[in-house]
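Students often ask why we bother encoding 3D structure as a string. The short answer is that it lets us treat folding as translation between two languages. Here is a chain of 134 residues written in the first language.
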Amino acid sequence: MTETNVFDNCSSEMFKLCSRCKTEWNSRDDFLNDPNIVMIGFMANNDNYKRGAYLFNHKLPDDSCNTTIGLFVYNFLDMYSGEKYEQLKMGTDECSGHCVNIHELENCSANCRNAIARKIMQEILNELPAHNKF
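And here it is in the second language, the structure alphabet:
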């Protein structure tokens, strides 16, 4: 399965399609406001933070779907207006180590290019209904 199949499996008319149950979300807001979407993690991309992936579970009440959906950071870049950092600080004394644990959803205080994605993640978490947090 290619990256395109996993992360961009939808037409230009919709934001995302669940690969298992075929639920369609027409916009990012529809996706983030869906009570069945739970953010479960973040996979950093150390070469290009925009290609990092936020991970969500689509959990239907009857357990008919519990698939994981990945969305690239670039789908959420407009949620960030702060300073852009070019350097990767992973593995340095400034690094808190959050990006090595996929299920770590905490913010990062380092001036690191991956910290941009983590700050966006905090905005996403603020958008999700309270019960949609891992």
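Translate back mentally: Residues 1-6 have pLDDT under 50 and may be disordered. Keep this in mind for the problem set.
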